[in-house]
Amino acid sequence: MDDDRAPTGPIARLGLALALAGGTVLLATALLATWSVTQRWITSQPVPGDFELVSLGSGIAVMGFLAHGTLRRTNILVDSFTGWLPRGVTRAMDAFWTLVWMAVAAVLAERLLVGARETWRSGTTTMVLGLPSWWAVGLGALGFAATALAAGYWALRLARGSKGTQG
């Protein structure tokens, strides 16, 4: 019998930590948006830079959720055309497409890392608050790197047909 339980090792702990951090940032972003709308309603003035902070926070939150979602295999799977195939064939196909996802995530992580270095070197800041933006791009690189690790874990596990959960 196949074992599709989520892993429990260091990759899983990293994914969970990033997801919890992403959830915390998303909650803070929602509170900021609520505060800004309320302040705008009461004083006709929003929180300065609210759209910048919501944009940064939302992006960071999404990057935080990717690895955990990949580890839990809660991403969208379309099996409309493969449901009738033998389980070994679908596992091989899942392994292949998870390997593709790993490659895409790794390329995005590398490109975001380059972008973080470039925004740090050039001193790029947000328009209203003047916050440096390199750190947000760097966190995006971390999120995609962790996602690539998570996808690599599953690609290997699916290809082997392994039942282990240490990832």
From TrEMBL:
Pfam families: DctQ
Residues in Tripartite ATP-independent periplasmic transporters DctQ component domain copies: 30-160
Annotated compartments: Cell inner membrane; Cell membrane
Signal peptide: none
Membrane topology, record value: Multi-pass membrane protein
Keyword tRNA-binding: no
Top-rank taxon: Bacteria
Gene Ontology cellular component list: plasma membrane
Molecular functions (GO terms): transmembrane transporter activity
Keyword Cytoplasm: no
InterPro entries: DctQ
Record keywords, A-Z: Cell inner membrane, Cell membrane, Membrane, Transmembrane, Transmembrane helix, Transport
Transmembrane segments: 12-33, 92-114, 134-156
Assembly: The complex comprises the extracytoplasmic solute receptor protein and the two transmembrane proteins.
UniProt similarity note: Belongs to the TRAP transporter small permease family.
Function: Part of the tripartite ATP-independent periplasmic (TRAP) transport system.
Name this polypeptide is given: TRAP transporter small permease protein
